[in-house]
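Recall that a protein's primary structure is simply its ordered list of amino acids. Everything else, from secondary elements to tertiary packing, is in principle encoded there. The following example makes that idea concrete.
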Amino acid sequence: MQVNSILERFLIKGAGKHLYRFSNADNKTWLMPAHNMQVAMNLYQPSGRNGKIMKALFPWLHHLLIIRKIIHAESVYCDITDELKRLFYQLFHETEIEFSIFCGTPCIHQKITMQISKGKHILGYCKVTDNKEIALLFRNEANILKELGRKGLKEVPICIFCGEMTDGIKLFVQSTAKTQKSQVIHEWTALHENFLDNLYQSTHQFIPFEQSDYYRILTNLQLHIEWLPQEVNGTLLTSTINQILLHYQGQEVDFSAYHADFTPWNMFMEGRKLFVFDWEYAQLTYPPKLDRYHFFTQTAYFEKHWTISQIIEYINSEQGKWIDQKMYSLYLLEVIARFTVREKGNINGKMAESFQIWIALLEYLQK
């Protein structure tokens, strides 16, 4: 996705609000307004120590040139188009809204995310793309949230718009319960456990295995096994998938909804409740509670910076007794399959590092 070309279609440069543009070492870029920056920085969710320090201090020190030079922040002036202003007014019933922008994680499904606020209040979030494939993810998220709402789940957003603007850019707009007092929880707690219990109880159903989303993703990988990185043991993956398919063949299985990116940066705590957002990769018929394994693996790698050996050591420790090795294998197969198909063989950088971990863990669990 050409981020700058999309920004140019809904931002008017050279006038309007004063923002700072800055990037991190992973080539992720943000635009943050100078006004009410504390509120705007809720969009900035760093996992590293330096990023967390910057989030805490930059709203107070951005007027100092030396600070802006240290983080390579550039001053820009821009405003959103009148068409977008009218849409946000219709959705949020507020004029003179403020916005911050995250230009997305560099990958095949990179998208822009805007946080919409008014004074000290966060009104909602808007995802932006011009890519038809990503627009389908927006539609999937809208459908998932509608279904979860119908099932009575309250701790998820409401999709308030999913459609296209006159210039062809596609938008997904959602509500939020987030406030300045919301907390991001980086350790597993009873709140996380209760959320997944509630998700399971609300969405589980017995269906033929061959009709499940989980069956579809495994067989999709079988069709595209050549997209795996060369260093990956394709024989092991094929054998493990065949075992799963044979085990569940012709059976009615108890499956439920799966978020697919259940991580600290996609949730927050507000009023002793856990709210979870970014459901674009979610599916409704997966093995129950695989999300806990994703939370564990992603935080172990991205936040605790554990090696493969340290993760395996944890699996075998007293603390790791909660891990069901069969369920962990089902999760690893899913995440390997999903990202292999998503990236269409273009696996490099951080993604390649993640693949090394997933494959090594699967090999260990299959011994």
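Residues 20 and 283 are 37 Å apart (CA to CA). The longest strand covers residues 11-23.
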